[in-house]
Amino acid sequence: MTEIFKALSEESRLRILSLLMDKEMCVCELEVCLKMTQSNASRHLMVLKKSGILESCKKAQWAYFRISDKFKEEHRHLWEYLKIHLKELRTYERDNMEREKYKGIDICSYMNEQR
């Protein structure tokens, strides 16, 4: 329980969760939408994964993250609370506008070329 609340105590991690509420996303997509460095995004994602809130899978060379079904089931009331209150983040609208802006663009390939 302590790990979950530690993971939720940082605004960048809440922003990540707000983007992942509806669908899984690649690390590259999260980096671009939240204007984070790869190392910063990865660090926050690992905290969320370690706490059991997120799970990941590899597709080719890319890591995709989503909110864990197990977390949603085991912490149903907390998940319901988060679904409502993550939308109250001051960055929620802007972050989701960024996600929509890049919808349909292969961000991962673009990011790989830039590195």
From TrEMBL:
SUPFAM superfamilies: Winged helix' DNA-binding domain. It comes from the Bacteria. Keywords: DNA-binding, Transcription, Transcription regulation. PROSITE patterns: HTH_ARSR_2. Residues 1-93 form the HTH arsR-type domain. GO terms for molecular function: DNA binding; DNA-binding transcription factor activity. The keyword Transcription applies. InterPro entries: ArsR-like_HTH, HTH_ArsR_DNA-bd_dom, HTH_MetalResp_TranReg, WH-like_DNA-bd_sf, WH_DNA-bd_sf. NCBIfam families: HTH_metalloreg. PANTHER family: ARSENICAL RESISTANCE OPERON REPRESSOR, TRANSCRIPTIONAL REGULATOR, ARSR FAMILY. This is ArsR family transcriptional regulator.
